[in-house]
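Predict structure. Chain length: 422.
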Amino acid sequence: MKILIVSHSDIFGGAGKAALRLFLGLLKTGVDAHMLVLMKGTDHSKVISPLSKTERALSFYFSRFEDLFIDRNKARDRVKFSTTWPSLAIEKHINSLNPDIVNVHWTNAGMMSIAGLAKIKAPVVWSLHDMWAFTGGCHYDQECGKYTQSCGNCPILKSGKEHDLSRSVWSAKQKHWSAKKDLTIVGLSSWMAESARSSSLFRDRRVEFIPNGIDTLLYRPADQTFAREAFGLPLDKKLIMFGAMSGTGDPRKGFKHLVSALEQIPAKDNIGLVVLGSSQEIKGLPEGFPVYYPGKLNDDVSLSLLNAAVDVVVSPSEQENLSNSIMEALSCGTPVVSFEIGGNADMISHKENGFLAKAFDAGELAQGIQWVLQTPDVQSLRAHTRNSVLNRFQDQDIAEKHLTLYRELLGIPEVSLSIAAQ
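Prediction complete.
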C-alpha cells in the first residue's frame, strides 16, 4: 500500500507540522509512505517537492493575487478567506506518483484548486485543519453557521448579497466534489468532525474523527531549572506562557481575553509572562507582569524545552480545531488553560491536566491560571498531564488509526498489511 501525504508544507505552519507528524508516524509502522509538499523545510528524502522554482514562485504570486482580489472586493474581517483561484495543477504530480491513498491536508495559498481535488485518481482522505473545506471560503466561520446551507450574504465578506463570492465558492465545491465519490473526511477534533457532518457539502460523506498525534520522545518533560537557564528565564517566578505568532493580530486567537484575565490575577510580583513568537514588546499587556520574549522558535527541541520551562500555557482562542501548541505543552507535562470550545476538550480534562473555562469568560480563565499556579502537588499534576498525551496521542498510535481507515477504504485485510510491514 502506497500512501501519499499532501500538504502545503512540512514544517511551516500548524497544519504542515501536524501533517509531517502523521507522515513520520506512518513510517514508524513500516508502510510505504511519502509526503508531497509545495514548500519543503526538512531534508527528509521521502518528503518531495517536485515543483520548479518558477512554479513555487507562481504559487506565491497566486496567493498574493487572491488576497488582493478579495480585499478589493469587500471590507472583510481579518479572518482568512480563500477561493483557491488561481492555483497550480498539483494533481498532475500527485497522479504521476500513482499512490493507493492520498491523504490531503492544508493545500490553500496557490497549491491546489477546487477542481484539482476532484481530478486526483486515487481515493482521497481529507484531514481538516480548519473549516475551509466545507465553507464558502472562510477558514473559520466565526459562528455564522451558514456552511450548513449554501453560504451567501457572508458576514466575513460583509457583502450584503446572497449571491456573493462565498456562494460562488460554495457552488464550485458542490459542482466538482460531488463527482469525487471516493472522498472521505477526517476531522482532527470531535468539533471539526461534527461541523463537517452538519455541513451541506459533507453531510452525506463518511466523516471520521482521528486527532493529530505527537512524537512524545521529542516533546517530553525536562528539568525546569535547566530549561529556564537555557532561555534566560527567572528561577524564582511562576511563569505563564502565551503564543503570539499572529496571536495578537488575529481576533480568533483571543488576545483580548488573555489581557482581561491577567488583569484579574493578584500577587503579580512572583508571576511572569512568556510571550512565544515575539522578540519585541507587545502593546496592550497589563502592567505589573515582567514579560519575557524568547522570539520565534521553529525547531522541536527548543519548543519542547520552552514548554517544560513554564508552569502553565494559556490558549484563549475563540475558535480552535486541535491546537498543536496545546498538545505540545501537555506532552511536556505543562498544564493548559483554555476556553471550552472547539477541540480543546478532546485534549484537556478539566482540573486534571488543565482547566476549561466557560467560553469567553475572562474571569474563569483567570481562575484557571490561578488553579494551576496554586496547585499543592505540582509533580503529580505535571505527571498526569504528561500521561494524558501518552495514553491517547502518541504519533505511532495515531498513524495506526489512519492505517485502519486506509485499509477499510481499499478493502485490504489487516493481516495483509501486518505481513507486508514485517
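Summary: The longest helix spans residues 53-72.
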